[in-house]
Amino acid sequence: MNLKDKFFLKQLFIVLGFNFIILLFIAKKYLSFLESSEGFLTKFYLIATTFSHFFIINALPFLLSCLLFLIVRRTVVTAIFNILLSSILLIYIQLDTIVFGQFRYHISPMVLKMVFGKRSGDIFQFSTENILFGVGFVFLILLLQIFFHFLAKKIVAKKQNLGIKPIFITAICCLLIGNSIYAWSDANYFGPITQTKEVFPIYFPLTADNLMLKLGLVDLEKNKNKSISTDFNSNTIKYPLKSIVSENSSKKNILYIVIDTWRYDCMNAATTPNIYEFSKKSMVYNNHMSGSNMTTGGIFSLFYGIPATYFYNFTSQEIPPVMMTELQKQNYQFEIFSSSTLENPPFNRNVFAKINNIPLFTEGDSPSERDKNINNLWLSEIEKRDPKKPFFGFLFYDSAHGFDYPKNYNKPFSPDLDEVNYLDFDDDYNPKLLINRYKNAIHYVDDLIGKVIKQLEDKNLLENTIIVITSDHGQEFNDSKKGYWQHGGNFSDYQIRVPMLIYDATKSPKTETNLTLHYDIAPTILKNYLGVQNQSSEFSYGQDLFEPFQKRDYFICGYNQKYSIIEKNKITNISPSGTLDVTDKKLNKLSDDNINYNTVGESLKSVSKFYKKK
């Protein structure tokens, strides 16, 4: 490489430096979306990560331009290429800060298609001022790039040593330090640092939970007792939208009974005889959907009445549901018993964040043993509870999720599998025996629930106890013939539709066929049994189930990084990368013409409902 070529490459490096300054100036907006930046470790991490992350992003035009130059050996062509790439990068980051500020989503193929695709005007309305600003900004960036190249050429002629190696070494060191700190923070649920994963664009930090555990860098006792947390006030979350006003003179007991992985067609006389009999006295909702296809979002939506797209932010700040806050305010006793741990997913850091002394795990070598244990714990606590105080109970059974029941259980569905081999599941697998084992597990849980109901009845507590029985999500056995098994893979009815009933001795039994959602349960409890006077929209996405139904054209189902928009006859999936695809309710792919961009736009706005606008 001759001296002239070396000078040109140095010129590109100087342009990189100028653009890095501009990029940092634009990217500092992301820091305003962080929930907290207090503490030395957090500040040190943010300095290292902000420098390294945006330096690497900014280095892409430089590296690609160097590669092009080594191929074509033409300075003018390479300079134009560098100007275009650098301009695109700066414009992209500027637009991304705007989009993220409005919707808490980074620019993705989905967003680009909405802005520039068909019927985009139905979703985004740009004023003349917006257009002029955009054109002006693009023109300014292009002029800056030309000026940077001119200035860099002058600097190279006067200065030979630019410190290229030390700068790159510093960036790499910051990258390693930042990722190491993030890996520790992720293992220890340290929200002030892990929050950056959602805030910074194109950011995929290192996680190493097992390594941190082996190195003894995870404080198990602190995690168990929820004390690894930073007490900071939200500067981006506004939940609820208004202060809650309540007046409750007749405090009724409230019991949530949740069967993990209970699909909608398995609430019947054969599979769940006790629940089925109890349903004859209850309000049964036959077209009920969970807020997610996984436990994370299913439980979150059940308690909060909002989509689990908020799960990460609420967890990092340990923001409890309005319902739990009201129960505490009204001096309820809490009887919380979960067969599966409350630490993974970390419901101890959101749903039950402010509830002290609840068991985070249950002893037992199998799901069925743990289910039996939580049942016994519940029955014992009810016997010795303070009768002067109302109680809130939560029973979360796991046997169906694990296809498990005791060895000596008198199973009603035969034959079934002796054991489940998940590697067997493929398109040719016959699920009949698997389904029988699944139903036997549910039948076992139903037997336990029958004892809970009987005890309440024997102690004359049913008359004053509101009981909700449902599931966190459904279960699929390749029903759609698309190779999907169990849950978490798609948002079909098999994975999100669940049984749901509400028992209230003062209300007549009925069967409701209108679409109802997990989002509706919290506002129903709050308004009818906890005396909350606020509008449901101020703290949830749901509606009061005892009021006349309002038509729903769609609802949001999913969790932080992936959710779907469920309409009557189709499902619009939004992937973690932001791409859109649409299927019918049987998961048959439809053309992009079937995507309702109006609905997609509305959903993006609705999922930012409880964020403060910057």
Fold and architecture overview:
By secondary structure, this protein is an alpha/beta fold. It has 19 helices and 16 strands. Helix 2 packs antiparallel against helix 3 and helix 3 crosses helix 5. About 3% of the residues have low confidence.
Question: Globular, elongated, flat, extended or rod-shaped: what is the shape?
Answer: elongated
> Percent of residues in helical segments?
40-55%
Q: Tally the beta strands.
A: 16
Mean pLDDT: 89
Widest β-sheet, arrangement of strands: 4-5-1-6-9-2-10
Q: Estimate what percentage of residues fall within beta strands.
A: 5-15%
- Compute the CA-based radius of gyration: 28 Å
Unreliable residue runs? 117-125, 224-234
Largest sheet: 7 strands, mixed
N- to C-terminal distance: 50 Å
Q: What class would the helix/strand composition place it in?
A: alpha/beta
Number of helices: 19
Topology:
Elements: H1 3-31, H2 40-72, H3 75-103, H4 109-116, H5 128-158, H6 164-187, H7 191-194, H8 196-199, H9 209-214, H10 220-224, E1 253-259, H11 273-279, E2 283-285, E3 288-289, H12 295-304, H13 311-317, H14 322-329, E4 333-338, H15 367-384, E5 391-397, H16 432-458, E6 465-471, E7 476-477, E8 485-486, H17 493-496, E9 500-503, E10 510-512, E11 516-517, H18 521-529, E12 554-558, E13 563-567, E14 570-574, E15 580-584, E16 589-590, H19 597-606
Helix pairs in contact: 1-2, 1-3, 1-5, 2-3, 2-6, 3-5, 11-16, 15-16
